[in-house]
Design brief:
36 residues, mainly alpha, 2 helices
Length: 36
């Protein structure tokens, strides 16, 4: 919800936080796939 709010008000930090979130998500996904 907070990230959505930042995008709606065009806060420059929104892109930084979205990138950090996506990198963490894909990192955890790759780790999960390697364990299988």
């Amino acid at each position: 919800a907070y990230l959505h709010h930042l995008f709606r008000v065009n806060d420059p930090q929104a892109m930084h936080l979205a990138t950090a979130h996506n990198l963490r998500f894909f990192g955890r996904l790759m780790q999960l796939l390697q364990e299988k």
